[in-house]
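Deviations from the work plan: none for this task. Representative record:
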Amino acid sequence: MLKEINGRKLIILIESSEISKKVHDLGQQITEDYKDKNLVIIGILKGSFIFLADLVRSIEIRTEIDFIRVSSYGKGINPGDIELITELQTPIKNRDVLLVEDLLDTGATLEFIKKYILSKQPASLKICALMNKKKTRETAIDVDYVGFEIDDKFVIGYGTDFAEEGRNLPDIYVIE
Ligand code: IMP
Ligand code: MG
C-alpha cells in the first residue's frame, strides 16, 4: 500500500479495524434512534462514499439512500466557495433525513448543505460525521453522531483525499 504522497510521509492515525468497530457502533446507535422509521440517508460526495457504504450495512431499519455532490476546495478554491454540483433527486419533504459526511473542518460545507436540505422541509434532520476536527469555528454546527474527534491536521484515507489521491487507503493517515 501507498506510504507517501508527493514525497510526503503518511503517518497512521486510525487503523481500519478501529474504523470498522466505530462505524458499526454508529450504525447500531442510528438503528436504535430511528427504529420503526423510514430514514433517508444522504451522503455528501465524494468524501463520504466509503464511510456511507460501511455505515448503511450496520443500519437495520428501512432506508433510502441518495447522494449530493458539492464542490470542494481540494484544487485550490477558497473554503467559502461551496457550490452544489448535483441536486438531490429524492423527495424529502416531511421525511426523516440523516446527512452523512466524511469530516468537519471549518463546518462551512455542512452549514451550506444543511440550509439546502432544510429548505426542502424534512420532518427531521440529523448529521453524522466520521471525523470532527477539534478547533474553534466561526459558526457552531451541531453534529448528532461523530466517529472520531481528531486534531486539526490534514488527513487522508477511507474516502478522504489529498488532491484526489488516497481515497482508497483502508486506514486513515495524517500527512507529514
Ligand atoms: P469544511 O467545509 O471546512 O468543514 O470542510 C469539509 C470538507 O473539506 C470535507 O468534507 C472534506 O472533503 C474536506 N476536508 C477538510 N479537511 C480535510 C482533511 O484533512 N483531509 C481531507 N479532506 C478534508
Ligand atoms: Mg467532503
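The first strand starts at residue 4 and ends at 5.
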